[in-house]
């Protein structure tokens, strides 16, 4: 019968303990535990929640610039809106230009003013200025009145009647209240003699 010493028993127990410890450690390290596998799918806690934000970038964002080069207003220019043909060529006069030769200049005789009737350029104007062309023929007179006595005459800058161009004072206009004349540089105004402070207009001869 073999007798074992206490020291050999101790060695045996140490071997058994070491073998058990190794086995326990192997079990703990095999694939980790539930704490390590947060997703329960053996991915060892990997979130796998990659949102792929790289793909969510605004690819070609630079193309978002407002490239509206085709919206230029090149075709919207108002070149065709020029008022070249908008001039009132009515054979008129006054401030708009010289009255055309041969025009009949007609007034309504009102105590407060000569009121233009024709041509259109002086219509409804009071004592409108007349621009005439030198050496050209015109006719001037009044076809309407307010019942007061009126006449019409053409004077120079010295307030003298030019070439006897004056009519009789009457209350009703007629054929004798028209003057046909050739425009000359000395003509300066047309006047109603009884109301010369109010019924007077300027004549310019070019």
TrEMBL record:
- The answer to whether the entry has keyword Metal-binding is yes
Blue (type 1) copper domain: residues covered? 131-206
For the region Disordered, what residue ranges are annotated? 25-108
Question: PROSITE patterns per the record?
Answer: PROKAR_LIPOPROTEIN
Membrane recorded as keyword:
no
Q: Which GO terms describe its molecular function?
A: copper ion binding; electron transfer activity
Database matches in Pfam families:
Copper-bind
Q: Which UniProt keywords apply?
A: Copper, Metal-binding
Q: What is this protein called?
A: Blue (Type 1) copper domain-containing protein
The taxonomic lineage of its organism, from the top, reads: Archaea, Methanobacteriati, Methanobacteriota, Stenosarchaea group, Halobacteria
């Amino acid at each position: 019968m073999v007798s074992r010493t206490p020291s050999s028993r101790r060695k045996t127990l140490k071997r058994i303990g070491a073998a058990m410890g190794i086995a326990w450690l192997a079990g703990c390290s095999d694939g980790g535990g539930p704490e390590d596998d947060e997703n329960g799918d053996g991915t060892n806690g990997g979130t796998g929640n990659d949102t792929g934000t790289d793909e969510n970038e605004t690819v070609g964002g630079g193309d978002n610039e407002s490239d509206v080069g085709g919206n230029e207003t090149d075709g919207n220019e108002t070149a065709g809106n020029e008022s070249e043909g908008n001039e009132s060529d009515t054979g008129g006069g006054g401030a708009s230009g010289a009255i055309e030769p041969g025009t009949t200049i007609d007034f309504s005789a009102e105590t407060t003013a000569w009121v233009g009737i024709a041509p259109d350029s002086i219509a409804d104007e009071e004592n409108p200025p007349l621009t005439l062309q030198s050496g050209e023929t015109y006719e001037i007179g009044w076809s309407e009145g307010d019942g007061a006595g009126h006449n019409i005459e053409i004077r120079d800058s010295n307030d003298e009647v030019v070439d006897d161009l004056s009519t009789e004072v009457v209350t009703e206009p007629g054929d004798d209240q028209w003057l046909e004349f050739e425009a000359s540089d000395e003509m300066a105004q047309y006047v109603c003699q009884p109301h010369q402070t109010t019924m007077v207009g300027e004549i310019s001869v070019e």
